């Protein structure tokens, strides 16, 4: 009633080898093994060595591999993915759905270029956790909200909104600036490449 039992000797691993089309090529060789460190693996024999396809450890992580490299791994807090994630749909809309249970908990996506570089800025796209909460683009490193969109579709920008390029001093070519007075007294500024094409409001 217990099925097939494979036992390793005391202090030894237990392995089951599966060979299909034996003698043809190494890709036909697979093995399932329970190791003495409480881990379990599925491997195939490739290019002269065994490569892992699945790894699991008791009361711990489970990992899926591609070409002997871990790509999806469970952790104590969720799932870690290494590499790109493609969302494909056979028809209709394709969604990435992120939800949290209960109220008072923010939900979001965190983006950082180099996780091991403290100098890199960490950005978040998140809700604020309330039932009718705002959507925020947040600089988590600085602890500030860059853009906040409320449920009425009104957006608040923490800094300036700049459109155009600065090429002709002291004026700016094709520039629209809407901002605060953190660096000067400009509230609304529209400039062209000439000294006469200028509309300037101050607060």
The order of strands across the largest sheet is 1-2-3-4-5-6-7
- How many helices? 0
Helix content: under 10%
Largest sheet: 7 strands, antiparallel
* Distance separating the two termini: 84 Å
Sequence of secondary-structure elements: EEEEEEEEEEEEEEEE
- Spans of at least 5 consecutive residues with low confidence: none
Mean pLDDT: 78
How many β-strands, per DSSP? 16
Model description:
The protein is mainly β and 203 residues long. The protein is built from no helices and 16 strands. It has strands at residues 14-19, 29-34, 39-46, 49-57, 62-66, 69-74, 79-81, 108-112, 122-127, 135-139, 144-149, 155-157, 161-168, 171-178, 186-191, 198-202. A seven-stranded antiparallel sheet has the order 1-2-3-4-5-6-7, with no helix packed on it. A five-stranded antiparallel sheet has the order 8-9-10-11-12, with no helix packed on it. The protein has a four-stranded antiparallel sheet with strand order 13-14-15-16, with no helix packed on it. A hairpin with a 7-residue loop joins strand 9 (122-127) and strand 10. The mean pLDDT is 78.
